[in-house]
Amino acid sequence: MARDGAARRPARTSVWLADRARRGGRGGGQPSGLDRERITEVTVRLLDAEGLAGFSMRRLAAELNVTAMSVYWYVDTKDDLLELALDAVHGQLRLPDPEADEDWRDQLRTLAREYRALLVRHPWLSPLAGTYLNIGPHARAFSRAVQRVIRGTGLPAHGMTGAISAVFQFVYGYGTVESHFIARSADFGMTPDDYFRHSLRTVTESPTTAGVIEESKDIMAARGGDTVEEMMERDFAFALDLLVAGIEAMVARGSAP
């Protein structure tokens, strides 16, 4: 609990709800000849290359070859930049055509696969997704596409948010863990396949964990796949099929609350 008289930070909402349009910079000037789109583009590139821990306004300014103060003509805070970057990468999602004659199952799988790929492509995305409101134009377009597809399932209104949570919180978790595995492999200078074999060998050789591997041999063998990518793809596809089947089952039974 905050002490009486202690200064409190005002609750932050979103860069997308700011009263002041910042595209022309403070006071309408453009001292560095930049624009917000260019700054956001470089922010995304730095986050991809160096991660959240390595990102700073000073590092961004150096990459843009301007002073740090010049960047503040276009955004108020580092948080603003991260929120802009978060929405920018959502623009990479390929959304189903609302006019296409396509089954909701196929459209849902497309959205799920696109979101998973986005999380893997940009490992810094997952921590930011839970930090900001994420209400930029690209994120809103994705949200509308998801809602449109879920409305087409036949689920009653009271079950739609639960269905969205089941599918996309699964995808969020799967994509996050997958991106962490790939990043950890790279940290050790290994491919995901080499790191997987190394980890499996290490665990198998340990008396305290070898039993777990032995007990799961049949499951791992049935899983199939010669590479980590194939194994993860098969698991993802099957898990997604389970979720689709669950939606179908709830529709069939009338989804009584």
TrEMBL record:
Residues 56-75 bind DNA. Pfam families: TetR_C_1 (PF02909), TetR_N (PF00440). Residues 33-93 form the HTH tetR-type domain. InterPro entries: Homeodomain-like_sf, HTH-type_TetR-like_transc_reg, HTH_TetR, Repressor_TetR_C, Tet_transcr_reg_TetR-rel_C_sf. PROSITE patterns: HTH_TETR_2. Keywords: DNA-binding, Transcription, Transcription regulation. This is TetR/AcrR family transcriptional regulator.
